[in-house]
Amino acid sequence: MPTANAALVDRENLRAGVDAALARHVATLRGTARAISPDAAPLADAVERMLAGGKRLRAAFCYWSWRAHGGTPGDEREQAVLRAGAALELFQAAALFHDDVMDDSSTRRGRPTAHRVFADEHQAEGRRGEPRRFGDGVAILLGDLALVASDDEMSHALAGLPPSVARSARAVFEVMRTEVTIGQYLDLVAQTMPWGDAVDDERRARDVVRSKSARYSVEHPLVLGAALAGADDEAVAGCRAVGLPLGEAFQLRDDLLGVLGDPSTTGKPTGDDLREGKRTVLVARALARATATGDQATVDALTRGVGDPHLGPEGVATLTGLLVRTGAVAEVEQLIEELCTEAFAQIEARDWPEPARSTLVALAHAAVERTA
To answer: What's the pTM value of the predicted model, to 2 decimals?
Structure first.
């Protein structure tokens, strides 16, 4: 979310409420770690660093969906919704710790990734064993700690709610976590498959977009907020109709930023997705267009370059140029526009009250028009 739109998640003290819940968790984790052993203190520091950089976008979609479905600011249920938002942020932290290990990413939000930090410390202190294995191991454990914390936070959030509301909200949260994990697996599998069939390439890319990011980033938070308000099935279906296309547009924007974004803004080196071999709709469209026009040189360059971990700045620039020249970038921009049109039409069809409606519209724009 661009800095100009950061105030969106500050409305109604949303960020302050979510951050307070996260701070309580970090303080508890720090006390537990130190009580077990002074050597465990760096774990709490690493979790705190990861939590400090989040946009709180998922928490905001959850909170304002709750408001859109009858939630009243300041009532006894508001704290539950804010804690549910904190649970979403903790799950996001868990996913990022693990994702950075799987992708061997070097930076996250402009800072070295956790596994790199711990590997570097291992090497600097001359410890025994392989630094990289140590760093990866610690990052996996950090993800596990954040995952446990997300479940604890959600349990606390639901504890005082009516049983039917708590069951509905818990079901949304459980499906979300399972789906994201399966989406991560599909992402890994897709990177092992050969390019070649345009239909299959895009199908795999869209499957990953939907399961790993689209539903998790927008649809499930909207549905969770509605569930916490006790919304009926029709209202929940309306949230899904808004959330899926908007979530897809959100991830497609992320894919474009991974190639064309400014590293000083995105916090990640340009071309990381290309080096990691991410099977994005963007690359699938470029290959499909090059194949259709008989441009074998472009096909060869893309299939050889995407997934090359040693791809340097010149190689990244070459592939980026091909993505633009094939028309793939323009096609993905057009797809984002179509998905946004669908999502905004669905918002228009909902009878959400103000200020929830206008805030959710602004959040939707921020999600797809961002530069980071």
So the answer is: 0.93
